[in-house]
């Protein structure tokens, strides 16, 4: 899209259909981040977008920035100098989506990940890969369940988190399919719900009407209206205390949402009332197992 500055870009994006506008701002985030990285401008364009025309789409813009890193074969690390310090970690989500979407043979079929990532970076990266799977498997619950089952057990929870996010934000499934999706995520229902809650928060932050599919997905995947699911994200965020910004804070945020979902439904973090509370995804033990996995599963 031809635009001289981020204000002009925002004005142009206002013409995009309301339901799709968030995706447009995701693309804008990618474009601004690409230009910032290529011109060494220390995040100027991305900052202007986040503080101006895209102020109501911070989640999508940070995700889009992650696409830019993937496109340039870079990793987000600490190079994202603009935006919310906690939402910076969504760049890893966008990076994971990019890797799965553009290199599906290696990343989806081959289940490979990049070397040198710590457990929490892998977790957010796999959340993004889970979002990608929603599109890769054409939103079909059975296909998604089979695909996730191909991955090592310690990666599945984060994949389901991304699937829940995509199902609620992007749509593409009817009520019967959403119920089937929840059943397919057995053992990872809290992660599915956490992803859907993120989607509800992002949709409700935007100054556009909530799409019907988001409300339906919220009820099917979280068991509550979208407003309640979005409130869980705010409550869990407030519980982090002042100035959350680290990857540990981001993972605690996700875990807090899962706990609120579990408390609401009177079950543990798997969704099974008979089980003891499960550990979060990508635990230290899981990371150690992952590092011991065959080298063929890892790539640069």
TrEMBL record:
Pfam families: DUF1702. Residues 267-300 are annotated as: Disordered. InterPro entries: DUF1702 (IPR012964). This is DUF1702 family protein. The lineage of its organism: Bacteria, Bacillati, Actinomycetota, Actinomycetes, Kitasatosporales.
